[in-house]
């Protein structure tokens, strides 16, 4: 292993992306640079009613090939990673059993090899199984789906974590692989099942996730029903010039994942004018945001947004950078709970282009209609089922995201993932 341009997913996790407000807080695991590591056909449907959750708290994930003949079942690979016990990553086998990740599997029989580097083979194909049983406890889970090739993930020498794709590294072993993923968490009797499709980092191909719990009549879907060609065509027509180059052969990158939007690059200050305008406005105007259970009030003083929450305070929010806004990081994800709470609201308002009028912060009809905003994020709300999407990390503010969370900690009857093209 010889490439330093990758990230490692460790057992510790951060709350940088807030897709599920549940105990597992899984959506962004702590990523650190792994120094010195190379880590770099038929349409087929399966009836959800044919399989039901077991009394022991497990439930079926049902996988559908809806690629209309473009990819056969033996070309659709599934890799499910999560934590069955805190601090230990495991992968799910096609028979529903779990196995701890093990770096020695890179040299085991049937291992994967790409560009002269060996990787553990942790995937299965839809031809091997179209229904896999989810155990009673799986936190921080990601279901990676790839087309035409498995994915290549290195494992840390101490088995503490695994390396995900580096979207900015052309030498990454997954750079020429079509892939996307679904995120979820569940612990029977403790943590309600919650899961979401996501474009926070990128879009690979359309997927629809349907969550059912027949005992209470719960049946909700999220995702994109358009074909991949339709998505690409509509994206090109909907976004401004700065966002068009994000669409590449294998995926559409999110601004926060693109080198062009990084500090110092061509679009590194894309959101700066909107940030400056907001900070200038609230220097001379009172800031007030009221939502259920909380009222924030204040103004910009000496470059910081100084505010109270329900009269308590003051608290301080530093002026964010363009990268902070697109990634919902830095100044918008630091400090105590009050600063985090308002930081998420500010981040969402700037991404949605409504920062100058707090009356519109929770008004979806006003989102992405004026001023500078995140065109990439806005597009996914145009094409997502019920206009819901995860286009940036704090897209759950005002309940706009694609997350679906059951109202109890019993297992779903089924979760169906339809893979489109």
Q: Profile the largest sheet.
A: 8 strands, antiparallel
What is the CATH class of the largest domain?
Mainly Beta
Count of DSSP-assigned helices: 5
Radius of gyration: 21 Å
| Mean of residue pLDDT values | 89
| CATH fold topology of the largest domain | Thaumatin
Shape: globular
Q: What's the end-to-end separation, in Å?
A: 33 Å
Strand content: 25-35%
How helical, in percent, are the residues?
Answer: 10-25%
Q: Tell me the series of helices and strands, N- to C-terminal.
A: EEEEEEEEEEEEEEEEEHEHEEEEHHHEE
- Total domain modules: 2
Q: In terms of per-residue confidence, which ranges show pLDDT below 50 for 5 or more consecutive residues?
A: 1-8, 10-53
Structural class: alpha+beta
CATH architecture descriptor text of the largest domain: Sandwich
Question: What is the fourth-level CATH superfamily of the largest domain?
Answer: Thaumatin
DSSP E strands, number: 24
What does this entry look like structurally?
This protein is an alpha+beta fold and 421 residues long. The protein folds into two domains: 7-261 and 402-420, Thaumatin; 272-373, 2-Layer Sandwich (Metal Transport, Frataxin, Chain A), CATH 3.30.920. Helix content is 13%, strand content 32%. A hairpin with a 2-residue loop joins strand 19 (287-291) and strand 20. The radius of gyration is 21 Å and the shape is globular. Mean pLDDT is 89; it is low at 1-8 and 10-53.
């Amino acid at each position: 292993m010889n490439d330093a341009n990758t990230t490692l997913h460790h057992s510790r996790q951060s709350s940088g992306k807030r897709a599920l407000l549940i105990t597992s807080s899984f959506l962004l695991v702590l990523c650190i640079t792994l120094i010195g590591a190379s880590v770099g056909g038929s349409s087929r449907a399966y009836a959800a009613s044919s399989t039901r959750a077991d009394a022991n708290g497990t439930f079926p994930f049902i996988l559908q090939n809806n690629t209309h003949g473009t990819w056969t079942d033996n070309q659709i690979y599934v890799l499910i990673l999560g934590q069955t016990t805190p601090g230990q990553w495991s992968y799910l086998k096609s028979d529903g059993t779990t196995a701890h990740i093990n770096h020695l599997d890179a040299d085991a029989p049937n291992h994967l090899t790409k560009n002269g580097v060996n990787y553990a083979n942790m995937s299965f194909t839809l031809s091997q199984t179209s229904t896999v049983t989810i155990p009673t406890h799986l936190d921080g889970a990601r279901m990676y789906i790839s087309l035409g090739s498995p994915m290549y993930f290195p494992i840390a020498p101490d088995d503490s974590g695994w390396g995900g794709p580096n979207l900015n590294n052309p030498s990454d072993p997954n750079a020429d692989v079509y892939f996307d993923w679904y995120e979820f968490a569940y612990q029977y009797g403790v943590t309600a099942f919650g899961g979401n499709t996501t474009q926070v980092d990128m879009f690979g191909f359309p997927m629809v996730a349907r969550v059912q719990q027949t005992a209470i009549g719960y049946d909700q879907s999220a995702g994109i029903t358009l074909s991949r060609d339709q998505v690409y065509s509509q994206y090109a027509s909907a976004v401004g010039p700065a966002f068009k180059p994000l669409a590449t052969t294998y995926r559409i990158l999110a601004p926060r994942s693109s080198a062009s939007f990084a500090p110092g690059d061509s679009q590194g200050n894309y959101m700066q004018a909107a940030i400056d305008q907001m900070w200038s406005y609230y220097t001379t105007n009172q800031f007030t945001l009221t939502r259920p259970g909380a009222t924030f009030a204040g103004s910009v003083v000496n470059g910081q947004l100084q505010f109270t929450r329900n009269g308590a305070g003051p608290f301080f929010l530093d002026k964010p950078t363009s990268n902070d806004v697109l990634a919902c990081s830095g100044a918008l994800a630091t400090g105590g709970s009050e600063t985090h709470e308002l930081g998420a609201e500010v981040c969402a308002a700037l991404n949605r282009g409504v920062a100058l009028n707090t009356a519109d912060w929770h008004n979806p009809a006003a989102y992405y209609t004026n001023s500078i905003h995140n065109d990439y994020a806005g597009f996914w709300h145009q094409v997502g089922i019920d206009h819901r999407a995860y286009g940036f990390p704090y897209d759950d503010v005002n309940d706009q995201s694609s997350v679906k969370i059951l109202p109890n900690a019993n297992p779903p009857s089924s979760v169906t993932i339809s893979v489109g093209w």
